[in-house]
């Protein structure tokens, strides 16, 4: 079985690392399984991309399509053109895509048009919000996927409701958690720890990048103002996404306890998350990591494609209204935050289950 694995953006790298490890393990046990890694180049900043390969032990990609930035359409087109050439030159039995970034959708479409089957890791998750590019990517990818690897019972239900039969759905868990658990002992203390005189459970971590929060000047200013005002002076560490950095310029937002820093490597960022009093974010993936690490989390979104982080985990969805920040922070400081638990199969063995299922699929085809 020859598998082409697609990675394009920061969240992908955390999901493919354990899958590559599991394939190598099976190959060492004389199973007939090979992989080829294609990096689309969707994220091209070293901190957003390069560090992940080094820190997570991901081998150098066999190809880098160097798609780069641009609009959604420009990026999609560049990835499809590059991947079509690559897949024609290097035929595969299966293309494996992960997550919900532009690369996921673009490479799934390209593979199917070349009559190559597609497996989608993290299939079936839905926010219901069609204003999010990721939701369109999910819907399109799952509409043309052959094999669906899911993280939750909710994802299974959404696929069944769209007509997918159970024999194509594989409930395996969350590969991001494989990476998290494997690397917990390797987290690296970042420079900001000493610069900001941080201590365990005595600071906030903030990340913002979604258009609803960062593209409107007034909204961004109000959110930042409320977060600063109700933080009780605790340090707020804000690794600034390139998109957000552009929008913050000229707003004049500052406070003695606010630390703007560059995007961080995986091992540094999760060192901070693990020890934070609270994480404030609009990212879906971070809510999964806080759930497993038992760290309180506030999500500044009106919806989430990861409801299990709320129903089971430590996450609270409070919307994008800046007025919701004060009561959430008061709940935290009063000691009434929920303890949370860990969703089923988020156990560090997800990639092994994925590869075992791929081998079974290959045997059935033969």
Structure explained in plain terms:
The structure is a single chain. With 366 residues, the protein is of the alpha/beta class. 44% of the residues lie in helices and 14% in strands. The protein contains 16 helices and 13 strands. It has helices at residues 10-28, 50-55, 72-89, 102-113, 133-143, 153-161, 175-183, 192-195, 211-214, 217-229, 242-248, 266-275, 284-293, 308-311, 325-333, 350-365; strands spanning 2-7, 34-39, 63-64, 94-98, 117-121, 147-150, 169-171, 204-206, 236-239, 258-261, 278-281, 297-299, 315-317. The strands form two sheets. A seven-stranded parallel beta sheet has the order 3-2-1-4-5-6-7, sandwiched between helices. Helix 5 links the parallel strand 5 and strand 6. The longest helix is centred in the N-terminal third of the chain and has 19 residues, at 10-28. The mean pLDDT is 94.
* Low-pLDDT ranges: none
Quaternary structure state of the chains depicted: single chain
Shape, please?
Answer: globular
Main β sheet profile: 7 strands, parallel
- Through-space gap between termini: 10 Å
Question: Helix proportion of residues, in percent?
Answer: 40-55%
Mean pLDDT: 94
**E-strand count:** 13
Radius of gyration based on Cα positions: 20 Å
What is the H-and-E element order?
EHEHEHEHEHEHEHHEHHEHEHEHEHEHH
């Amino acid at each position: 079985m020859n598998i082409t694995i697609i990675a394009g953006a920061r969240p992908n790298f955390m999901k493919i690392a354990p899958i590559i490890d599991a394939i190598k393990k099976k190959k060492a046990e004389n199973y007939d399984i090979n992989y080829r890694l294609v990096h689309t180049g969707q994220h091209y900043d070293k901190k957003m991309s390069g560090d992940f390969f080094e820190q997570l032990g991901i081998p150098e990609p066999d190809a880098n399509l160097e798609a780069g930035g641009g609009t959604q359409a420009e990026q999609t087109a560049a990835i499809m053109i590059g991947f079509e050439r690559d897949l024609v030159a290097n035929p595969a039995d299966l293309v494996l895509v992960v997550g919900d970034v532009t690369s996921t959708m673009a490479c799934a479409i390209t593979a199917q048009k070349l009559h190559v089957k597609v497996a989608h890791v993290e299939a079936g998750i839905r926010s219901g919000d069609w204003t999010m590019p990721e939701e369109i990517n999910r819907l399109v990818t799952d509409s043309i996927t052959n094999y669906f690897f899911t993280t939750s019972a909710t994802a299974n239900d959404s696929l069944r409701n769209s007509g997918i039969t159970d024999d194509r759905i594989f409930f395996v868990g969350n590969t991001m958690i494989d990476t998290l658990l494997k690397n917990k002992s390797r987290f690296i203390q970042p420079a900001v720890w000493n610069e900001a005189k941080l201590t365990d459970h005595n600071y906030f971590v903030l990340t913002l990048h979604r258009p609803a929060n960062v593209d409107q000047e007034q909204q961004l200013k109000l959110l930042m103002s409320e977060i600063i005002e109700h933080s009780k002076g605790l340090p707020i560490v804000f690794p600034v996404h390139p998109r957000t950095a552009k929008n913050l310029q000229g707003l004049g937002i500052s406070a003695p306890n606010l630390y703007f820093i560059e995007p961080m490597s995986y091992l540094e960022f999760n060192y901070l998350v693990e020890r934070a009093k609270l994480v404030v974010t609009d990212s879906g993936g971070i809510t999964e990591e806080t759930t497993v690490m038992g760290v309180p989390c506030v999500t500044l979104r009106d919806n989430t494609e990861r409801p299990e982080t709320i129903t089971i985990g430590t996450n609270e969805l409070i919307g994008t209204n800046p007025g919701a920040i004060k009561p959430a922070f008061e709940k935290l400081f009063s000691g009434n935050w929920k303890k949370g638990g860990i969703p089923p199969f988020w156990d560090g063995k997800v990639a092994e289950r994925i590869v075992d299922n791929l081998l079974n699929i290959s045997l059935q085809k033969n």
